[in-house]
Amino acid sequence: MCTMNDSLLELVRKKTVAPEEAMNKALDKGGLMTMFTKNGIALPH
Questions:
Q1: 30: containing domain
Q2: What are the residues whose beta carbons fall under 8 Å from the beta carbon of 39, sequence distance 6 or more?
Q3: From CA 38, how far away is CA 18, in angstroms rounded?
């Protein structure tokens, strides 16, 4: 089984979805931010 954050991360990796949009849609924003950090994905400030 795949979490929503797993799916959002995969879409960002494939450049289908921008990181900002994924973060806007995430229910677990802290968890997604951790996943982004571990995968070298930065959000613009």
A1: 4-38
A2: 9, 13
A3: 17
The model carries a pTM of 0.91
Please tell me the total number of residues recorded for the chain in this structure: 45
Locate tokens 């991360």: which residue?
Answer: 9
45 occurs within a structural domain: no
Query: pLDDT digits over 8-44, tens only?
Result: 999 999 999 999 999 999 999 999 999 999 999 998 7
CA angle 24, 33, 45 (to 5 degrees): 70
In a domain, 16, yes or no: yes
Total count of domains within the chain: 1
